[in-house]
Amino acid sequence: MGKVVMNASVSVDGFIAAENDDPGPIFEWLVSGEVPLDDGGVLQVSQASYDHVRPYWDEIAVTIAGRHAFDITDGWDGTPPSGIDHVVVVSHRGAPEGWDLQAPFHFVNGIEAALATARDLAGDRTVEVAAGDVGGQFLAAGLVDEVRMDVAPVVFGSGKRYFGSVDAQHLLDGPDVVVQGNRVLHLRYQVRR
C-alpha cells in the first residue's frame, strides 16, 4: 500500500489562496525556470525544482480533493492535473449534471470513503491529498503519512489555510528534505505517529 501525502504550494504565512480563492503569486515558481515540468511545456521550473517535483508527480496515482477545489477548477475539464490517473472528490453531491461519467473522477461522501477508493485505485503508488479543508481533515484523522509544501515568498495575511481548520497540535518530523528552487522552497516532513 502506498503512502498518503498532503501537498500544496503555500505562502510563508500558511495560506494556499486568498479568501476569494485567488492563489496570487504562490504558483510563480511553476513558470520561473527553464526546465519543462509537464509535457505541454507550460510549466517551466528550475532544475532543482524539477529534480524534486517530477519524481514525486510520477509516483502519484490518485489525488483526493474537496468539492470546492473541483468546482473552482471546473473539474480540470475532466482531465486529472499533472498526469495523475484519478481524482477522488470528497463531496455530499455526486457528479455535476452533464459530467462525462467516463472521466477518471470518483465522487464519494467522506474522507474514509475517499481514502478507501483512492487506495483501491492507487495500488502501491502514492495517494495525494490536496491541502486545505479536506487535507486538514485527513491530518486530524491520522491518515496522512507525509506533508509536502512548496513555500512561495509571499505573505497573504489571511485566506485559505494550508491545514484548513485543524485546531489541535500535530507533530511532524524533519524536515527531511529542503530544496531551494526559483521563487520556492520545497519542504517535506514525515508525520509523527
UniProtKB/TrEMBL annotation:
Q: Tell me the protein's name.
A: Dihydrofolate reductase family protein
Matching entries from InterPro entries are given as: DHFR-like_dom_sf (IPR024072), RibDG_C (IPR002734)
Tell me the ranges covered by the Bacterial bifunctional deaminase-reductase C-terminal domain, including all copies: 3-170
Q: Which domain of life is it from?
A: Bacteria
Q: Which organism is it from?
A: Hamadaea flava
Q: Which Pfam families match?
A: RibD_C
